[in-house]
Design the sequence.
């Protein structure tokens, strides 16, 4: 009964009319204030492998298969400016209709999709049939990213806080030193997103994980 009630909550979160009125990918990217270049970089860097594209197309061809993809996100979030372009590539590969809602303007829609029932993590992908029946949803980032996060980011996020810099320097840092440390961390993170095999691998893992999620949901 609980599972049935939860599934109904997923179904009721966004009506067919609300989905149709939501922004297309192009409208969403055209409206954002932050990280437009990063959305473009991640879109350009994402490619759906032929084998996965065929599996997605086979799913979409089923009468009960995916035809609509709703994404909830916010443009300031790294998982979003990586994940929403991946969603667009998935939608293109499978022939799905994609719509995007800003989470913070649509908290009622996001509420049923809390990660672990607690966190409003983003992005959220929600898949529906052609008559807008809920199939499955995916949240935030692939398992591979969670497994690799510490290894991938620990060299980038070096000491930048007052306590950390004091330990590194053997004295309290100046304001200039703190600002320089923060700026260096931001530069390193930007470069990581552009060129790291970890970051690129997380995009690929998202496509793989979503494909497997849909196959499991549909018993394919």
Sequence:
């Amino acid at each position: 009964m609980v599972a049935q009630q939860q599934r109904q909550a997923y179904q009721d979160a966004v009506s067919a009319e609300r989905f149709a009125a939501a922004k297309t990918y192009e409208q969403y990217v055209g409206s954002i204030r932050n990280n437009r270049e990063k959305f473009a970089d991640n879109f350009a860097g994402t490619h759906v492998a032929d084998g996965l594209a065929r599996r997605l197309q086979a799913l979409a061809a089923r009468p009960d298969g995916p035809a609509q993809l709703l994404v909830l996100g916010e443009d300031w979030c790294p998982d979003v400016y990586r994940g929403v372009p991946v969603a667009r590539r998935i939608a293109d590969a499978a022939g799905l209709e994609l719509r995007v809602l800003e989470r913070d303007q649509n908290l009622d829609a996001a509420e049923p999709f809390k990660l672990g029932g607690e966190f409003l993590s983003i992005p959220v992908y929600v898949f529906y049939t052609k008559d807008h029946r809920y199939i499955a949803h995916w949240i935030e980032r692939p398992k591979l990213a969670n497994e690799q996060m510490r290894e991938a980011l620990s060299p980038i996020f070096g000491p930048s806080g007052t306590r950390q810099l004091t330990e590194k320097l053997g004295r309290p840092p100046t304001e200039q030193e703190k600002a320089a440390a923060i700026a260096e961390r931001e530069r390193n993170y930007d470069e990581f997103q552009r060129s790291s095999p970890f970051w690129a691998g997380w995009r690929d893992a998202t496509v793989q994980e979503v494909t497997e999620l849909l196959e499991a949901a549909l018993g394919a």
Observations:
- The chain has a mean pLDDT of 94.
- The first helix runs from residue 2 to 12.
